[in-house]
């Protein structure tokens, strides 16, 4: 029951933040210089063309009216129409989310497993050569510009060795993969399309590798820190002093304690991953959510900018909220 | 990308005894790397034959060697000269934006932490809105809306980082203002502002000093990332991210020299900041 109350309170706290995000993005895209109609129609459009287009997208209305319409749309799941394409923003976004989620989920999963193993390994050798080497490597990973790493991987693995398909697109069009979720690997499994699966997997290798390298470093630091905390705790030292077998110590004490912090870590990593995915998608022409949001920003496509910014903020806030709740379940001290 | 909010507030208690020897090695190595980079970008441009935006019409995409030690890009501009000149811009923007973020964040943090009450509540809720985004996404959105240009970019990166400093300083101020020597200063008749300036402020900046170098590295990555996406500094201005972006088309054809050198220098500079920051953290016993 206390958990339910805690969740409700955290939800209530998130509401004003999200409302703030909605208002700020709405006002900022309109107040700052730049006009989507002019950008999209090009220099040859006449004043009449621009006025007609403005009326079509409701931009001739007073700002408060636009805001009321926008807010009403938000509650009914209508995110408006893209000025670039004339298509429904909701529909466009649905197509774009699958590929990006596929990339992020695979990368975060691999990175989490890798970080847990390496972080615990490093903590158990704290202060020794292996630990120092790994920490310096993590710092290098932390310092790598992901867009450059992606290019270097393309240079070596594609241009040099020819081991992976060309870095454009997510799946070979010859494989006739039918679209279900937008996540190509998943779609290939669902339709039993073997060649498409192989092609999608090939296209995933480099972008996933790029993201794993970039996000594994901060994760590993965190796992190492919590493992060190456990190693120094009286409970662990007592267990070790009682001569519990190595395996029990590792699984029952260290791994579990490191994993307790996983929800908070996952939230943090999700933030890194969203930021990285814009750059990584750009490098590999992934045509996912990140590239879609970026083009919306460049064209100052109001509905697309508003929708993508609000969706990112919503996901980010929700993930942190879930992390807090899970943490509260695991650690009763938080609930007070 | 460093998430600063977790640094001071939620971190675990000092986990292990600080590894002092390793911390010193990290700080020294980081300082040496940064020193070499600074030296290279200050002196290097004086020694190269070509200007950063000078076009050698006879040599487009020339491979390294001869008149162009690191080759030329698609416009026939000398890569070595551009890479060195770009360093001045990248380092300058990073340091300037972090300095601005520290000043802005500290001011906000002091006001919120020292005044408390309604002012504190309002300021913190505003910061909540800013921190409802991943940092790079926020930088991307603000940069796209403000438009490119070096002063705008410094402002964007500073704005994105300032909330984290505000939180750090606020948390410190709230602890420091209750300490006996602050009380003593107040009862001895020193003005509120005097107490704040002489006693509270200096004692609230420790975490800021530790985080700032790490943050400089992040600022460089952000600037380069924005420029790479076409939202920051644009060609022909020499900037590492913009150079990598221009060279990205050559990579598929196997031409490495247009994009590898700027990225390598970026990596080395950021690594310098990271080593320095990590060493300072280890020494201060801050774990993240």
Automatic annotation (TrEMBL), chain A:
Keywords: Cell membrane, Membrane, Transmembrane, Transmembrane helix, Transport. It is found in: Cell membrane. InterPro entries: BPD_transp_1_N, MetI-like. Residues 97-323 form the ABC transmembrane type-1 domain. It is a multi-pass membrane protein. The chain crosses the membrane at residues 12-32, 103-123, 144-164, 196-219, 259-284, 304-330. It holds the Pfam family BPD_transp_1_N. The keyword Phosphoprotein does not apply. The keyword Transmembrane applies. It comes from the Bacteria. This is ABC transporter permease.
UniProtKB/TrEMBL annotation, chain B:
PROSITE patterns: ABC_TM1. Signal peptide: none annotated. The keyword Membrane applies. The chain crosses the membrane at residues 26-48, 91-112, 132-160, 218-236, 256-276. It is found in: Cell membrane. PANTHER family: D,D-DIPEPTIDE TRANSPORT SYSTEM PERMEASE PROTEIN DDPC-RELATED (PTHR43386:SF1), OLIGOPEPTIDE TRANSPORT SYSTEM PERMEASE PROTEIN APPC (PTHR43386). Belongs to the binding-protein-dependent transport system permease family. This is ABC transporter permease.
